[in-house]
Design a protein that fits this description.
Layout (H helix, E strand, L loop, with lengths): L1 H14 L13 E5 L9 H27 L19 E6 L4 E8 L6 E3 L24 E2 L5 H5 L4 E4 L2 E8 L2 E16 L2 E16 L7 E4 L7 H4 L4 E5 L9 E5 L15 E4 L1 E3 L2 E6 L2 E6 L2 E2 L17 E3 L6 E3 L1 H14 L15 E3 L14 E5 L4 E4 L5 E5 L2 E4 L1 E3 L7 E3 L7 E6 L4 E6 L6
Parallel strand pairs: 3-10, 4-9, 18-26, 19-25
Antiparallel strand pairs: 1-12, 2-3, 2-8, 4-10, 5-8, 6-7, 7-8, 8-9, 11-12, 11-27, 13-28, 14-15, 16-17, 16-21, 20-24, 21-22, 23-24, 27-28
The chain binds 2-acetamido-2-deoxy-beta-D-glucopyranose (NAG) (3 copies).
One 2-acetamido-2-deoxy-beta-D-glucopyranose binds next to strand 6 and strand 7.
Length: 441
């Protein structure tokens, strides 16, 4: 399947004079991501909005997962108005001559899409930058019946002889036509250009907090990874809200051994779910809080034959999500361990909050790390700042929620991966990770 898409891309390369044909074979570059958390809002507001958007995102994901699994029960919760404060974005250049587009990095999106000036913009809130395809000599609409259109699966279809796409992100929907154009990634002295199929369309719902689209790094047919046959990539998220850089690396630049880590490099297998080929699953088999192993049945953590359950590693959500049996055990352990009063007033997006002593910052509170155990013995140590947030004055809230439905996997969010260099070795289906000071990488 991937081979077909790849072949098609080669054809497009030959057609697109601006893209050096060797580029797709060496998709090596490094860039810094911009965090949505270094923006316009106060620290408390940022966390609150992030949680709201995260919950909306996971509800949407759950709804399409249920559809993919052929089960009943997809119910999208209405999350209210929030600008999508989700995910980190990078600036890429699209077309010939290049036009800038800010794309949110997402390991759990089916396809790449960007806002386009193709349609009547009346119904939508287009946020600059918006692509103008009429100004690009390499822009092409993907015809109906094209391999790329078929590769879209449930996310594309043919309507009026056009290949239409539709994709959800957090609490917005983007739809339009599937197109192809040259994308240029990286900095001027270190850039790579390649042709990519992408959704060129408009948004319905709230904006993307300054970004203009999504760059899919998932396992799906239409991601950057599959279309360009990228063997591996890595990212390293700095602590949010501190204005520090978060690197994103591709191809031969992605190599944990080349960089200083602050702990051992560990690895776990990456698992593909035949029922939903978007997500990267990892075999989590247990959870500990400090030294206490939580009493969670392993069956509620592993991927089942019918495609339900399992654990996904995700770059886009802010809160992490555990299935109910795991969440309840974690909540119990946290309440026993954290010697603070449980807050009577709770920000509704969070399930458990503590009252901080007057005048004490969250950073001053000593709590043990959360530990995620994987098949084969690898262990991910999650320090306090990666699973607690401060969404209101004097409130310390657990940045872990309950999965919206039983079939849905546990989800390891980007906050949980802060200051960790995470490498997706897609070709060898392995995930490597090592604690790292991301701004020093
Ligand atoms: C979906 O969820 C909403 C709010 O949680 C609820 O009011 C509604 O009845 C649910 N719909 C279905 C079909 O379950
Ligand atoms: C991937 O692409 C192939 C061929 O184009 C198609 O048959 C398959 O259904 C696609 N997979 C998904 C999950 O959409
Ligand atoms: C086809 O796609 C368009 C745009 O995504 C959507 O509005 C329409 O409902 C889809 N139709 C079918 C039959 O899936």
């Amino acid at each position: 399947m991937a081979r077909h898409v790849h072949l098609l891309c080669l054809t497009v390369v030959l057609a697109a004079a601006a893209a050096p044909a060797h580029a797709i074979f060496h998709f090596d570059f490094r860039t810094d991501m911009v965090s949505p958390f270094d923006g316009a809002y106060s620290r408390h507001d940022t966390w609150r909005r992030a949680a709201l958007a995260s919950n909306a995102r996971v509800a949407r994901h759950a709804a399409s997962h249920v559809k993919a699994l052929g089960k009943k029960g997809g119910n999208i919760s209405e999350a209210g108005a929030v600008g999508g404060t989700e995910g980190h974005w990078i600036t890429v250049a699209v077309g010939t001559p290049p036009q800038p587009s800010k794309l949110v990095l997402d390991t759990s999106s089916p396809l790449i899409w960007a806002q386009c000036k193709l349609f009547d913009a009346a119904k939508t809130k287009q946020v600059e930058p918006v692509l103008d395809p009429s100004k690009s000599s390499t822009f092409q609409v993907v015809p109906c019946g094209d391999e790329l259109c078929r590769a879209g699966g449930q996310h594309t279809n043919c309507t009026n002889n056009k290949c239409m796409y539709s994709s959800m992100y957090a609490n917005l929907i983007s739809d339009g036509v599937l197109a192809s154009d040259t994308f240029t990634f990286g900095m001027e002295h270190d850039s790579v250009a390649a042709p990519l199929g992408f959704g060129c369309g408009t948004l319905a719902g709230d904006g993307l907090a300054g970004a203009s689209g999504v760059m899919s790094l998932s396992w799906s047919n239409l991601s950057v990874i599959t279309q360009l046959n990228v063997p591996r990539f890595s990212y390293c998220f700095s602590r949010f809200g501190e204005g520090k850089k978060s690197p994103l690396l591709f191809g031969r630049k992605a190599n944990l051994q080349k960089y200083k880590t602050t702990g051992p490099i560990q690895s776990v297998p990456l698992i593909k779910n035949p029922w939903n080929e978007i997500y990267y699953y990892v075999p989590m088999v247990g959870i500990s809080y400090g030294t206490k192993k939580l009493d969670v049945p392993v069956e509620s953590l592993v991927l089942n034959k019918d495609g339900s359950g399992g654990t996904v590693i995700d770059s886009g959500s802010t809160l992490s999500y555990f299935v109910k049996p795991a969440f309840e055990e974690l909540k119990k352990a946290v309440m026993e361990t954290v010697k603070l009063p449980v807050a009577k007033y709770t920000v509704k997006e969070y399930q458990l909050c503590f009252e901080l002593p007057h005048g004490t910052a969250m950073e001053k509170v000593e709590v043990p790390p959360l530990r995620l155990h994987f098949e084969g013995g690898a262990e991910m140590v999650v320090p306090r700042e990666n699973y607690f947030m401060e969404p209101g004055p004097g409130l310390m809230c657990l940045a872990v929620g309950v999965t919206p439905m039983m079939f849905f996997p546990n989800m390891i969010s980007n906050v949980m991966q802060q200051n960790m260099h995470v490498l997706f070795d897609v070709r060898n289906t392995k995930l490597f990770f090592a604690p790292t000071q991301c701004d020093k990488l």
